[in-house]
Amino acid sequence: MRIFVSSLAALALTAGFAIAESRDLVRVHLSNAVQAAGTTIPAGGRMYVNHLYEFENDGCCTFFDGGIIEFSANGGAFADANSLFEAGHNYDGTLDAGNPFGARIAYTGTSFGYLGTKFNLSARAGQTIKFRFSIGSDQFAGALGWLLDDISIYQCVASAFTDDPLFGLVTKPKVAHLDELRQRINSIRIRRGLTGFAFADALLNNTIKVKAQHINEMRAALNAAYTAAGYVVPSYRDPVLNSGATIKASHFIDLRNAVLAIEAAP
């Protein structure tokens, strides 16, 4: 189970970047986006990056332009984050020696859509880390560049939920999933100085179908606990669930993540 720690939305942008997007420019150039404020890495920390790119190459084996991810620990020099790579899509190949980075491995070529990359930060627990996303381009042809999305740092912890993890297209929501979330949410509410929430269909059994009302109630009950604790309320996929809406595993996943986050919070 993942506990969200920090997004990297706060990037200090330099030439070549707009939001979290950079062009592969037609000149010898280095550009980068640096995390504006460092993140203290929790135990079991991970970082996930969802990204798409197209860099100049010869269609085969020579990669002229490319991008790299680096990190700085406790204000030190930046180093290649490839040493932290754990799963997903890694660097594609070695850049041509004429690139400003020199002949080093990087994201290069064409991704043909968004790809996910996961980094294991557990060895950096307790350190304050900044990440930097950099592009090196030569003076010849340009290309789309690098689009970064859904960058997050999170913590892996044991969750003690039934059927964990839930798989969005495989796991069918069960009454057991509903019941344990209700119990955890009411425990959180009491800890935060609120009373237990009076949920509809209080006596659950296997003949009860999980419905939009149940999800909406749990969201409202949990949001009130976040507000009482002084935290920003969570965001949920399908934020407006009308009567008759199809209930998905993702609705439970969002609630579980939000429950774990506030349980771990001061």
Task: Give short descriptive properties of this protein.
seven-stranded antiparallel sheet; disordered N terminus; elongated; 2 domains; Jelly Rolls; alpha+beta
Summarize this, please?
The protein has two domains: 2-156, Jelly Rolls (Sandwich), CATH 2.60.120; 175-264, no CATH class.
The CATH architecture of the largest domain can be named as Sandwich
Major sheet: size, sense and barrel closure?
A: 7 strands, antiparallel
Mean pLDDT: 81
Oligomerization state: single chain
How would you describe the shape? elongated
CATH class of the largest domain: Mainly Beta
| DSSP strand content | 25-35%
Helices, by number, come to 3
Helix content: 10-25%
Could you name the ranges where pLDDT drops below 50 across 5 or more consecutive residues? Answer: 1-28
Polypeptide structure, described:
The structure is a single chain. The chain has about 270 residues and is of the alpha+beta class. It folds into 2 domains: about 1-155, Jelly Rolls; about 175-265, no CATH class. About 20% of the residues lie in helices and about 30% in strands. The chain contains 3 helices and 15 strands. It has helices at about 175-190, 210-230, 250-265; strands spanning about 1-5, 10-15, 15-20, 20-25, 30-35, 40, 45-55, 65-75, 80, 85-90, 95, 105, 115-120, 130-135, 145-155. A hairpin with a 5-residue loop joins strand 8 and strand 9. The model is unreliable at about 1-30 (pLDDT under 50).
